[in-house]
Amino acid sequence: xxxxxxxxxxxxxxxxxxxxxxxxxxxxxxxxxxxxxxxxxxxxxxxxxxxxxxxxxxxxxxxxxxxxxxxxxxxxxxxxxxxxxxxxxxxxxxxxxxxxxxxxxxxxxxxxxxxxxxxxxxxxxxxxxxxxxxxxxxxxxxxxxxxxxxxxxxxxxxxxxxxxxxxxxxxxxxxxxxxxxxxxxxxxxxxxxxxxxxxxxxxxxxxxxxxxxxxxxxxxxxxxxxxxxxxxxxxxxxxxxxxxxxxxxxxxxxxxxxxxxxx
Length: 263
What we know:
The chain has 263 residues and is mainly α. 56% of the residues lie in helices and 8% in strands. Strands 2-1-3 form a three-stranded antiparallel beta sheet. It is elongated, with a radius of gyration of 20 Å. The model has no long low-confidence stretch (mean pLDDT 84).
């Protein structure tokens, strides 16, 4: 949680002046509303509580239940303690990946392309706009969260702690990378379809959310770039993070079953 918010806040300030020229929703200090905090922490808090209640004190994930490796990774639907750890990491990896992609992708020298129509270039700040830089940043942000959690496991110690932490150092960064990348792409897809992006021709930048609801606005000032007004940015973030929380245990099982015997 700390790694996500600290890196996100720092990256928000990188090139803040340029971001505000391109997008009316950008802020210099990167303030977060209560809705943003809940969207990027609520599910993880529930998962953390569930792990505590079911599994007891915190400890490195073992990733050594080889019975889960028979058949397919979908074969055993029982949720294990390791699954809860993977889901927790995947949640924050998705949030970090999306934040890193948004904050660094906005600084790309190449204009974004709409994820639902890659041949179409769109202004920076468009919901659903993706760049190569932003895509790489999403993978890096997710992997970073997985690595931070794994390194934290080294401090827990205890019997078998070193071996378990070694497994975490392989499995969790991989989980984070997938959750960061896939979560960011899902976020972009939902943004392109379910979020309304409006361009302000008077200011030559992305208009502030809800601009079309302003009764005093000129009908010629704003034009819709893409999407529909179905979800807020917080809603998109929540759905994406929830999906990655569910996907991450599957990724963890796949990685552990593929490489765990070598660790």
